[in-house]
Amino acid sequence: MPARSTPVLLVEDTPSLARVYAEFLKKDCSAVTTVETGAAALEQLADGVPRIVLLDLQLPDMHGMDVLKRINAQALPCAVIIITAHGSVGVAVEAMRYGAYDFLVKPFSAERLTVTVRNAMERLRLAQLVDSFEKDLGRSRYHGFLGSSLAMQAVYRIIDSAASSRATVFITGESGTGKEVCAEAIHRQSPRADRPFIAINCGAIPKDLMESEIFGHMKGSFTGAVADREGAAARANGGTLFLDEICELAPDLQTKLLRFIQTGTFTPVGGSKLEKVDLRIICATNRDPLREVEEGRFREDLYYRLHVIPIHLPPLREREDDVLEICRQFLADYTREEGKGFVRFSPAAEQALRTYHWPGNVRQVQNVVRNIVVLHDGDTVTPAMLPAPFGTPAGTAAPPPANGGGNGHGGGHAQGSAAQAPSPKTVKPLWEVERDAIEEAIAACDGNIPRAAALLEISASTIYRKRLAWQAEGKL
């Protein structure tokens, strides 16, 4: 908040002094409101607007300290500066105890007042930033996203900032990280929220039909075009056009898309009339777009035209404990849908879910949890219910094959199974393999955990969290 935009409330019952103080503050403050009583001050503060409050203690209707106590009790967004001709150490200490920012004893100079007010403004601004950050950290749900990790809070803040703009957004991330969810979140947060959101998957439509899909076509323009057809660009007019898997576009269509973005106009396939639309473009890919440019598969000028606001969606393995929040939500949803009785995961099952690397991200989580709910029942999900790739829980013997092996005799079958089965000593639980890999990386980096995390391609916070968990369980 700029300093001059911070309102100042001056609570002073001597009109001549109030005019002098207001004159002192004229250069630094755009709005100074003067009141003469404590009741009037509290009425002004009731609207909750952040303010600097210059508070005299000797007021006609109540003591200024009572006003301060009310401000403190109601946690009003104020920085209070006490001004009084009757200063004492005891009064100053009491004022600070109830949240006063500073204490000025009359008479004071213009410079002393203005410096104190400037500092109070800066403190109020920083306090609001901290409050805003803490509020953001509390967001676990956001327009279809579920997760409260720091990585996702950063994504939410970018969406908040980018939504009101017309600038093109380029979303990257692994398959299953929620790129279409992100595009819809931007649209729903934007001024275009009540207009159409049209999504096209550029990798799911045959290349020879892609131009018609985006720009539409006229009757008879190609075999099968039995009527005029409106394309996605026209249907998204006023709203948002989302082009998923943008790197799958054919080179000739990339050229036409570039012209469309530059001019906002297009010609339907087989048509001769230019059409103009007003829309916002959001695109996404699970590839590395710069590598696609370097290898000649994606136009460099189109890349820079699209890559205005980049948003990278982190993989689930870098989102701290978000996987547990997501698993619990899917468990509740699918339990209700399938009419089962699940209410929780056991601690051991949660540990297995937390430490798995989830290459398929949120989409894989959906499949795993639905598999559990469909094939089992009970109130608690146990490790034995987890499907592949979690494998057979440690300590559980694998079942023998249904048909005999080897020479077909019982003894031969047992020998064959023994020969084929891995030795228990060569198979470790997943958490143990992960722990050993992390500890070896830390040792190789001379104890530098951020460097070890970079080599392992995980976040440092993941290593810290896992090591704390292992220490608490006596496994480290």
From TrEMBL:
Q: What is this protein called?
A: ATPase AAA
Q: Which organism is it from?
A: Azospirillum argentinense
Q: Organism's domain of life? A: Bacteria
Which terms does the record give in the GO molecular function aspect? ATP binding; sequence-specific DNA binding
Give start-end ranges for the coiled-coil region(s): none
A Pfam family of this chain: AAA_lid_14
* Ranges annotated as biased composition (Low complexity): 415-424
GO BP term, example: phosphorelay signal transduction system
- The record's region (Disordered) falls at 391-426
Biological classification of the source: Bacteria, Pseudomonadati, Pseudomonadota, Alphaproteobacteria, Rhodospirillales
